[in-house]
Specification:
Strand content: 25-35%
Order of helices and strands: HHHEEEEHEEEEE
Distance between the termini: 39 Å
Number of strands: 9
Shape: elongated
Helix content: 25-40%
Structural class: alpha+beta
Number of helices: 4
Length: 188
Amino acid sequence: MSQTEFEQAVFYEIAPSIIDSIFYDRRILPPPPPSPDFFEKEEYKKDIDDYKNSDMYKVKMRKWERMKDSVERDESLIFLIVSDSIDTKYGSNYRIDVNKLKSKNKKIRFKYRSEFSGENELWRPNDDYFIAAEMDFSSISFNKTKNNGVLNVGYSMGTLNGVGFRIYIKKNENENWTIDKIVSTWIS
């Protein structure tokens, strides 16, 4: 087995764990707290607990709960966009086969980045499907014994909305690849 074939086999084995570890549906994130200047208003001078007891906050949270429930019950597909290929450290590359990518979330499907002509098309709302994120995978660097590795993953949810991860992987006692540690490396 060549170095590229080995890396590709490891990638398809560990990809589902990576995807399930870093995916989240941004549509169900709770609303952010108000800005600091909001609390300069006379009625909320006390603190955030005073605000959380207000009717305004309670209405906002009920609205969010309804929307969250609606999204969770919705059976529409969620798409993750992936690079068409991965350039390896061995001077070759391989095409990612989206049919081999899996997730425990049964609504998740995958599309190639090349299916979209530009950044604007990628993040334009579409009634047929929801694009949750674009994921970019680096090549996997292995130690000499090939029982540990590391790769980088970019997870973007919009033009200036993303996060990067360094993911450490290892073989467990059953010779299966597992995630050892995930470290956030950048945010925008």
